[in-house]
Specification:
Elements lengths: L2 H22 L5 H6 L6 H12 L2 H14 L4 H25 L4 H8 L3 H33 L4 H51 L4 H4 L12 H11 L12 H17 L1 H4 L8 H19 L2 H16 L18 H7 L4 E2 L17 H9 L9 E2 L4 H8 L4 H39 L5 H24 L5 H25 L5 H22 L9 H4 L14 H18 L6 H10 L3 H9 L1
Antiparallel strand pairs: 1-2
Helix pairs in contact: 1-8, 1-18, 3-8, 3-13, 4-7, 4-14, 4-18, 4-20, 5-11, 5-13, 6-7, 7-8, 7-18, 7-19, 7-20, 7-21, 8-18, 8-19, 10-14, 11-20, 11-23, 14-17, 17-18, 18-19, 20-21, 20-23, 21-23
């Protein structure tokens, strides 16, 4: 069957499933819209949380980062999974016990301040909007290729789909939709990985195939073969560390505490019936996430190897060693139509030269071959997972399945983020501050209108993203790490932290991180100079913008501590409230019985 028709059928069937679930589980109250009526089973919530978590960055972009960064990209695996351990141990059960709908509501109540609640809303919206940009980028990439439309049209189609099922169902509809989306995305991720691992190594388990020998009879290990190919073309060894150790540590920490501070993830733990279920949900989420995250390193390495083998078919510098552009494979032509893969014949030989022309030593060597610069002028990293089955020559049904999985990953997280944004606007701002007496019906309408507005903003920004999906998401994690996580931690574990300390801390963390990101992403400079600013040589102490969230969090903690020492302590009832949050429910019941 034709790939386009097959893709329409597979993707269309999954979308029909999502919309059907949304209609079946339409929210009829604010409690169902915000927290799914607090009746979700822990295992189901763990699966929904995994889908909420495994966004376009995880499904589409993370393996792309691994493909091009190699060893250094392991920080994304460690940071994003490690954050769930922090969330399960330090935040989820205590926030569930507090019993509020939103993170901002917790901060407002804990710090006995509407101002603190408003600052939390600001932090939440900034982090969530940044995060959702990455999802819309992933939607545009997937739709652009498989509907054979341009990237911007792909984003618009994705916006329409999210609008239907997220605005209609709220958290109740999103929860059950995300369970279906998890099943789709994990099947779509692992099936191609098994096929490709078999093709390259003869081992059907991708995790083991990554450390196996090639099946081509060379006797070389897959990673050794990849190292040889990339270094022959002037790139750094795939398995070598390229970033500074300081940057890797800070980026891992930023991703970890950013995970624990992301409001759309934390909201999922308000949907279970009991406090103990919140911790159980986090454990199940880790199990479901691990299936994809342990597969991603193999997918990334194999995608890079397949790409290099396609373009470089012989010895470096050999007259017949490069791909003849006129004979380029179908997958190459397909991705060129999206604008995410671009070739420029700089020396007019009709062949594709793909090498590191930034390496001065190899550039001189390349000149002796008659090469005149890297001719693959654009290889968007976000295409690697979606293109990998095509590059490997897998059946059309596998390619269509990957398209459905990529869209499921992007849409599931986008829906969760948009719900977090709309809840902050309707519940925290409108009901919490502007109109406390608003009826439930009007609040539900405000929630849906807020989500519709957030979809429009996210779609526009998704059409003009500041980087690859995973890079944009990493920036969002840095913002959550520097602003929301410290306020939650101090709110739970420091009964002497007052409202003024929390407010100053959140603002210091948020704006220090924003300024660093804007400065070193080049957005304070003349347009077009972004890459000049965003280089390791220009970063402060070699700390990348994606890693600065950990520094921002430290500044947040420090500022909050200093201010709390020179201002009056919290009221006594607030201090008792903080102590009660940390007392297990069983201990409370035992004390009452006694």
């Amino acid at each position: 069957m034709d790939l386009k028709l097959l893709t329409f059928l597979v993707v269309g069937a999954t979308f029909a499933l999502y919309i059907g679930i949304a209609i079946w589980s339409k929210a009829s109250s604010t409690k169902e819209f915000y927290v799914a009526g607090t009746g979700v089973h822990p295992i189901a919530n763990g699966m929904a949380t995994a889908a909420d978590w495994m966004s376009a960055a995880s499904f589409i972009s993370m393996a792309g980062l691994i493909a091009f960064l190699g060893y250094d990209a392991s920080v994304y695996l460690m940071g994003w999974t490690g954050g769930y351990v922090l969330l399960a141990l330090l935040l989820a059960p205590y926030l569930r016990k507090f019993g509020k709908f939103t993170v901002s509501e917790f901060i407002g109540e804990r710090y006995y301040s509407k101002a603190a609640r408003m600052v939390a809303v600001l932090c939440l919206i900034v982090a969530s909007i940044t995060y959702v940009i990455g999802q819309m980028k992933g939607v545009g990439v997937a739709f652009g290729r498989f509907l054979e439309v341009d990237f911007h049209t792909g984003v618009v189609v994705g916006m329409a789909i999210v609008f239907v099922y997220a605005v209609l169902g709220g958290m109740k509809g999103i929860t059950y939709t995300q369970i279906a989306q998890y099943c789709v995305l994990i099947f779509a991720y692992t099936v191609p990985a098994i096929f490709i691992a078999l093709n390259l190594t003869g081992n059907p388990i991708p995790q083991l195939g990554l450390g196996s020998n090639m099946a081509d009879g060379s006797g070389m290990a897959l990673l050794d073969k990849l190292d040889m190919i990339v270094t022959d073309l002037g790139f750094a060894a795939y398995t070598a560390q390229k970033w500074s150790t300081l940057n890797m540590v800070l980026l891992t920490l930023s991703l970890m505490i950013g995970t624990a501070g992301l409001p759309h993830v934390i909201m999922r733990f308000f949907t279970v019936p009991r406090v103990a279920d919140a911790r159980t949900s986090a454990g199940w989420a880790l199990v479901f996430i691990a299936i994809l995250y342990t597969t991603a390193p193999a997918v990334g390495a194999m995608a890079r190897l397949n790409l290099m083998n396609t373009i470089q078919s012989g010895p470096v510098g050999a007259a017949d060693g490069n791909l003849v552009y006129a004979d380029r494979p179908t997958w190459f032509k397909n991705w060129e139509t999206t604008g995410l893969l671009q070739f420029e014949d700089k020396n007019g030989d009709g062949r594709v030269q793909y090498y590191n022309d930034k390496d001065e030593a190899f550039a001189a060597k390349a000149a002796s071959f008659g090469w005149n610069g890297n001719e693959m002028v654009k290889v968007d990293r976000d295409i690697m997972v979606l293109a990998n089955p095509e590059i490997a020559g897998l059946p059309n049904w596998v390619i269509a399945l990957v398209a459905a999985g990529g869209l499921a990953a992007a849409l599931s997280t986008a829906a969760g983020l948009l719900l977090a944004i709309s809840t902050a606007v309707s519940h925290d701002v409108i009901k919490g501050m502007i109109s406390p007496d608003i009826s439930e019906k009007k609040e539900l309408l405000a929630s849906r209108l807020s989500m519709a507005g957030a979809i429009l903003v996210a779609g526009y920004l998704g059409m003009n993203p500041p980087g690859f999906a995973a890079q944009v998401v990493a920036l969002a994690f840095g913002l959550a790490a520097s602003s929301i996580f410290p306020a939650l931690m101090m709110g739970i574990f420091n009964k002497n932290m007052d409202d003024k300390g929390a407010i100053v801390g959140m603002l210091v963390g948020l704006f220090s991180t924003l300024i660093y990101i804007f400065w070193f992403k080049g957005w304070f400079f003349v347009p077009g100079t972004e890459m000049a600013a965003n280089t390791p040589d220009n970063w402060f102490m070699g700390i990348s913008p994606e890693a600065f969230g950990a520094v921002g969090a430290m500044l947040n903690f420090l500022a909050a501590y200093v201010v709390s020492k020179v201002t009056p302590p919290p009221p006594e009832h607030i201090q008792h409230l903080v102590e009660d949050i940390r007392v297990p429910m069983g201990a409370v019941k035992a004390a009452r019985d006694h």
